[in-house]
Amino acid sequence: MPQLTFVLPHWLYWAGLICFPLLAMVMVARADRKKAQGRTSLGVGYLVLLTGGFVGLHRFYVRSWLGILYLVPFFGVLFANGRGRDARDALSRAKNDALVNEFQVERLARAVESGTEGAAARLETLKAALADAQQRAADAVTAVDTWADWALGCGIAIVVLLAIDAVLMPRLVNAQRAKETPEPPPEPVSQATADRGTTQPQPPTVVTAIHKLSTWSGEFVAYWSVIAVFVYYYEVLARYVFNSPTNWAHEGMFLMFGMQYLISGAYAYLNDSHVRVDVFYARLSPRGKAISDLVTSVFFFIFAGTMLATGWVFMSDSIRVWEASFTEWAIQYWPVKSVITLGALLIVLQGVAKLISDVQVVAQTRSKRWA
């Protein structure tokens, strides 16, 4: 198989981090609206074809066992590449032996000319070894070319099968949808249940806005995990099928997960997912929890404020020099450090919303006691 030389452009990396989650969120919302039409999706079918079609996963997605046919050329590629690596190793050893024997033959040829005793016999032996090494090198070259042709042929077979299934995919999806039972619509909420849901105090508009922002930011970066699946999938395919390991996959995903951790902090705080020692906290009443949160909020704002101020310094210094990594990929670091400030700001805003909500709970409970 031919080697892959693709290196992810910087602009595509940053554009993917922005555009992919937006596209995924739109697709998910659209899929939720179309659940009644069946669970099999044409868009998902084509996505599976592009990412896992080389082993027939798209056929299995539409419940067609003909996907097994893809396994034959796929394992053919793996087998041919394995034998090709062995042939390249043999070629390297043969070339090394030939170089060593050539040097020894030249040295002994000069010894024969100078009349050294026994040099002629050793020269003939080395010439035979040199000829054997050259023959082994020639055989290895033939083997490398042969297995490369086998791998290429199996790869072409997979591409042809994928092209055929790309045309047939709408028909396959429609056939599978006809076999599915549409999901029933959700049951309507009774008026009594709706009334019970309105007994809680309505949060202020600013709190609702901050909650929506934290929820949206958390859901946005959650789709970055899907990007990691695709990137590591490409890395494994490039490394073990095409013998072409990348120089950008690990660094790109390492930085992406770091930014995801920072941005999702507000979402985790909104859903109470951060680590908490709740041996006593879990036993408190809602008012007691609100009072406890108000008291400990001082430490929260010290931490969040420090992270915001420090992140601002890191961001400013990085932007001033347009900082980039020292690796071969040389990705920009200043957007990554800017996310420190962004993540800290989101956490501070969510902390403000939590503070307002706790004050509201304490005030409402107190007013009920005096009523």
Which H/E pattern describes the elements?
A: HHHHHHHHHHHH
Kindly give the count of domains: 2
Q: How much beta, percentage-wise? A: under 5%
Please give the radius of gyration in angstroms. 33 Å
End-to-end Cα distance: 80 Å
Give the SSE map:
Layout: H1 10-33, H2 42-52, H3 57-61, H4 71-113, H5 119-179, H6 191-197, H7 205-222, H8 224-240, H9 249-263, H10 265-270, H11 286-321, H12 334-370
Helix pairs in contact: 1-7, 2-5, 4-5, 7-12, 8-9, 9-12, 11-12
Condensed summary:
The protein has 371 residues and is mostly helical. The protein has twelve helices and no strands.
Would you give an account of this structure?
By secondary structure, the chain is mainly alpha-helical. The protein has two domains: 47-179; 204-370, no CATH class. Helices cover 75% and strands 0% of the residues. It has twelve helices and no strands. The chain has helices at residues 10-33, 42-52, 57-61, 71-113, 119-179, 191-197, 205-222, 224-240, 249-263, 265-270, 286-321, 334-370. Helix 11 (286-321) packs antiparallel against helix 12. The longest helix has 61 residues, at 119-179. It is elongated. Mean pLDDT is 85; it is low at 190-199.
What keywords describe this structure?
371 residues; mainly alpha; 2 domains; 12 helices; 0% strand
